[in-house]
Amino acid sequence: MTDANAFDIIIVGTGPAGLTAALYGQRLGMNCVVFGDVPGGNLYMVENLANFPGFPGGVPGTEWGVKTFQQAQMEGGLFTMSRLESLEKNGDGFAGTDVNGISYSASCAIVATGRVPIKLPGPHSDAKGVNFCSVCDGPLFRGKDATLAVVGSDNAAAQHALTLSLIAHKVVLIYRSRELMMDAVHQERIAARDNIDLMPETEVTGYVGLDLVEGLEIAVPSGGTETLPVDGVFLAIGWSPNTEMIKLPVETIDGGYLRTDEKLMTSIPGMFAAGDVRDTDLYQVLTGCADGARCVLNAAEFIKRSQG
Known about the structure:
By secondary structure, this protein is of the alpha/beta class. It has helices at residues 16-27, 61-74, 134-137, 155-165, 184-191, 285-306; strands at 6-12, 32-35, 78-79, 84-90, 93-98, 103-111, 115-117, 130-131, 147-151, 170-174, 196-199, 203-208, 215-219, 225-229, 232-235, 239-241, 271-273.
């Protein structure tokens, strides 16, 4: 490995936490290498980021991601624009190898890889018409008089339903709980859309169709089962931490989220975690950014102590 591949900090992820870590890290004088190929991470799924300070009326998630990426890039870190294949120990530090087989070393690592949507298990779960991003895939149904289902009841499900209500003839919001789990603002907006139908206390048990989704099998409150014809389904049933690239015995909590201490360091000395991948109590862009800034400050202190 050449000196050109040696850095102070490996940052894994180009979402809000990773980009902020790169921005703050470079400004602290840390030489950072950043892995990830989507500026803003999962924010491409957010049509309008309405709760981030400084943007009255909100900002498209993709726009926020691109601008923050550009801001971080201007500070001089190396953005590989590739995903990390493995993160391992390298002596007292760490080694990161990307999907192209190129390896980099660093004294510290910050894992800011976020979360990935959970799939609804069952036959034909990979069929065409099963989607996770209404902003990306919703426009495919424009002008088709479509009936679309959204499965879930949190803010992510609300954003799917609201986005799709501008495209589809009808949107059916299906959720197992008695009450919606989204915040009050989203509930008000959902109630104001005439073409969004609610199906509480209802569980999706399977898909109808082979290569193309034609409907959903649902368990209804009465205890029976029905088939609901739909042209597509958008899932918002939960998330799981994106940690497959970590090839280290790191401590986790229930659900696989990385356990961190008050310095946001994991159980592995020198490896920190920021944003949605760790044991946070608030999954928000704002808290992800705060985590990223704190991580590089603590990583810089760790490196200073290690060097005596």
